Automatic annotation (TrEMBL), chain A:
4Fe-4S ferredoxin-type domain ranges (all copies): 56-85, 86-114
Cross-referenced Pfam families: CbiA (PF01656), Fer4 (PF00037)
Protein name: MinD superfamily P-loop ATPase
Record flagged with keyword Metal-binding: yes
Alphabetically ordered keywords of this record: Iron, Iron-sulfur, Metal-binding
Organism (species): Keratinibaculum paraultunense
Automatic annotation (TrEMBL), chain B:
Signal peptide: none
Cited CDD domains: MTH1175
Pfam families the record matches: Nitro_FeMo-Co
Dinitrogenase iron-molybdenum cofactor biosynthesis domain sequence ranges: 13-101
SUPFAM superfamilies named in the record: Nitrogenase accessory factor-like
Protein name in UniProt: Putative Fe-Mo cluster-binding NifX family protein
Superkingdom per UniProt: Bacteria
InterPro entries found in the cross-reference section: Di-Nase_FeMo-co_biosynth, DiNase_FeMo-co_biosyn_sf, MTH1175_dom
Amino acid sequence: MNIAVLSGKGGTGKTTISTNLALLLKANYIDCDVEEPNGFIFLKPEYITKQYVEVEIPEIDEENCTLCGRCVEICKFNALAKAKDKIILFDKLCHSCGACILACPIDAIKFTKRTIGVIEQGKKGEILLKRGLLNIGEPISVPILKELLKDLPEEEINLLDSPPGTSCNVVNVLNYADIAILVTEPTAFGLHDLKMAVELVKRLNIPFGLIINKYDENNLYLKEYIEEEGIKIVGYLPYKKEIAEAYSKGKILIEEKEYKDAFKNIANNIKEVLL
Amino acid sequence: MKIALSSSGKDLNSYLDLRFGRCEYFIIYDLEKEKFKVLENKGKYSSGGAGITSAQQLIDESVDGVISNNIGPNAYELLNSSGIKMYKGKNISCKLLIESFKANELEEIKEAGPSQKGGH
């Protein structure tokens, strides 16, 4: 069972919620925000192992290349170009599709490998912690996500802490999700981006529930939309300075009784409403 | 000798488009014949690698020089490795820039400008 935690907007509390829920539910925690994974700061895994992620890129045999330019014409990602006397590869634009290899009339292109990041895996007690780290400057993170999300333990609950927004990375995470928990905050920006996230999970036909973080009962930005759409709310977290302070120190919230109760309530609601 | 200018319009009175990969048009000016032709920039429609597409278009036209403003790292590498010289233009008409080029007044671009690439 894979549960994706997502939000249209960055900074709404996905990591706070998914790390605390992972501990409470004894669920595996998978940090899918490969550009900025910070769940490990809170969960502090032990026995970390690393596995590098490689992608395939073309290598051109310059001795034999006739500069016919077919590989350049066929590349839809503009990763290849024909300079005066050689073919130049812009490896960061390459999507490893292999069209250039097929197009080459004299078999002067073969695949070689390039490292774009690393998967780290560790344990905290019984639960499995994984994250993907994209190397700085790399534009394409989907291969890391795919590697991160394949072969997750099927019999257990896996919490997938998604990247912010509704980009292709988020869609990729949702492809592995059985249910989704959306996190939002009661502000105009929160509402705007929540709408996009709701559209996305509906389009992909994934059952979902909503957690309102930084909740303040005087703040009614979300009320009308939630009622109109009939969205199920699985929990609230209050807007409190103590939470921000605990977060900034890398602390886990459920160590405090008040928050442990709030998270227990959320966990129960998830089970009731979504499972 | 042919030089290409990243242009915001289709004639010599058009101002220089300060972008390279995403400029509207390229004016290809032939200095011997004092004639020019206009190409629509194919890079404008690229989802990624716009500068590469634009540079490739100019290499295929066998130009000897390019006048633009900000040429990103990929396009710079490609033009440079094809022996095409790059010159820094300002926000003035292409006509004036060609005059400046003839008078040898344009500064040669010796390093790539900032990348403008977008994310996913």
